[in-house]
Amino acid sequence: MRVAFVGTMILFLMPVFSGCIIGEDVTISQEEIVDESFGPYTVVAPIDTGINVYHNHFKMNESYPKSLLDGLNVTMICDITTEGSWQERYEADKENCWDLISPSDIVWFKGTRIIGTSPDNGTDIPILDDPQDGHGTAVTGAVLDANPEAVIFFVEGFSDTAVLAAANQPLVDIITTSFGPIGSVPVPGIEDATKVAVVQNKKIHAGAADNSPSPAVQDSTAGPPWSIGVSGYAEEGDDQKETMSGSYPDIAADWTQILPNHDDIDGYHETSGTSFATPRTAGLLSKIIQTLRFDYNDFSSGADPILRSGFMVQGDGVNISNDHLRDALNLSAWYPSSSTWDPLSGTMPISPVAPCSQVGWGVVNESNVQPIIDHLRGGAEMAQRPSDVVMCMEANQAIREAYWT
Q1: Helix (H) or strand (E) holding 399
Q2: Which residue has the higher pLDDT, 37 or 44?
């Protein structure tokens, strides 16, 4: 599922938190932090409906270091309730946390991996997922399934303002968005904000293609040439293209996943769509970045053009940019054999002729991670793609450049 927007979106979200430290300058006691021992990290920013911070999926035993909280401009710390049902926890935290959050606040929910903000007006309870939705909770769950150690900078919203809240955070590495116009109709969306994130601030943006066979080229989320457009394939199924997912993207990733519920503390559900293939891709990329930062003693994050010279990984004489990561991702992608196609599965067999028109450079899953790491280390370099694939995807990029610039 990909959330659709038409015109101005109004979000209704239901948040959860308690016991807060509030103020422009947050005071954090030493017993609340574990500073440099936290080690290299990576920050992923899902932009979506909201998130269920009470779910066990997002729990964390350690604490975030003060340097990270300061770097992300945290203004509140909510020490959320950890006993009782979802509703009981929310009610216990309502007065001391949820009722106090403003659009300008950035909140760490202590005991979780979630730092969140809700910069748009029009939400009853900031940051928490809408009781009738759950999309953002599942999206964030997909990120952490791919990289359980990712720092989450969650932004509630569907607007340019929401995307820019992450784009202008120097420590954010990757932005993942799973909303856009139904049918990939060629209308303006968040492309101006994602351009700031990637072209100006050197981050990575993963954008969901539509849940239809429509080409992704003109899609305002997946189509701009600076974005990584993500379609879906049946990982752990017959490994073929999901019929109801965008065509001619950059890559395809896991379409159907089991992800956390938004209205309890430990439940899960199976769900499908480019909405979840996209954050899974973001999570895999964050895992690669984090591993390389460990390798090269890089203890910061983001790719700020001033602070980090635009490099995602910068340490021990190694500089790796978002372009290096994207090129390696493209080299690592692959085309499953159509021999595994199940005619009853609802998928479309990967064509032996121009499979790029279906799944772009190919499919991506956990098996791509180590080859990309080895390639970027300069060790076992990946082979170049066949010339017909390169020509097809160079044409894809040229069309996108012409359309969006």
Answers
A1: helix 387-404
A2: 44
